[in-house]
From TrEMBL:
TPR repeats lie at residues 62-95. SUPFAM superfamilies: TPR-like. This is TPR_REGION domain-containing protein. PROSITE patterns: TPR (PS50005). The chain crosses the membrane at residues 55-72. It comes from Nitrospira tepida.
Length: 231
């Protein structure tokens, strides 16, 4: 059986040293390093507090903003993460770490255009980033599917009755899934071809797959109706 993980004593030593340095010089930028050590130790809340206090002294310090945004994301506070990272990008438009985190957040909430822009920034510098490439491929699938469904608008009651989401954001959330909010996020998407293959080949359709296809059509109809209403 695996043994109990042994804490890294060097982390504690670095934390103590950096905490002492910051206490002696509260206007020092050492607070970013201290926050990163807290993250390594799994103390995300303490790391966030340190960065919040440091940014009061150094507002607009992009490095600290990006680290704080990443911490918010790991804590599951995507709204705070997005706001902080967008502020960082406004100050530093080419910041890869900020765009990498934003690509995941935008994709998860169904903001396709913004997600693609952030993916593009990352891939221009690092075209071999497999995680971002996977997100971009999934976004491409979504944009191909949306205009390819010339369906009549479905009523709100019909969408709810089919068990589907009642708004565009929730619908697209089903299209981009994550296995975690940190660096290990992946995406997946079921396409209409995989859901209707048995029908196209002349065989009997799987009731569950047919239900999924119907629900997807209802969702897409709802999205198209909403877009036409706001056009």
């Amino acid at each position: 059986m695996p043994g109990t993980p042994v804490p890294d004593p060097s982390i504690s030593e670095r934390l103590e040293r950096l905490a002492a340095e910051w206490a002696k010089a509260p206007h020092s930028k050492v607070f970013v390093q201290l926050a990163e050590e807290y993250v390594k130790a799994g103390l995300l809340q303490k790391a966030a507090v340190v960065l919040q206090e440091g940014l009061l002294v150094y507002p607009g310090y992009v490095i600290a903003m990006v680290v704080l945004g990443s911490i918010y994301q790991q804590m599951g506070e995507d709204a705070k993460a997005k706001a902080m990272l967008e502020d960082a990008v406004a100050l530093s438009p080419e910041n890869l770490k900020a765009h990498r985190s934003l690509a995941k957040i935008y994709a998860a909430e169904g903001n396709i255009e913004s997600a693609r822009k952030s993916c593009t920034v990352v891939l221009m510098t690092n075209p071999l980033d497999d995680e971002i490439k996977a997100i971009e491929r999934n976004l491409a699938k979504i944009t191909r599917i949306l205009p390819s469904q010339p369906l009549e608008p479905a009523s709100t009651a019909g969408v709810a009755g089919a068990g589907g989401p009642t708004n565009e954001t929730t619908a697209l959330d089903r299209s981009v899934e994550s296995n975690g909010r940190g660096e290990g996020a992946t995406v997946s998407m079921a396409t209409p071809n995989t859901m209707t293959h048995s029908e196209e080949s002349g065989g009997s359709a799987d009731p569950e797959q047919a239900s999924k296809a119907a629900r997807l059509q209802n969702w897409l109809s709802r999205i198209q109706a909403r877009r036409r209403a706001t056009a």
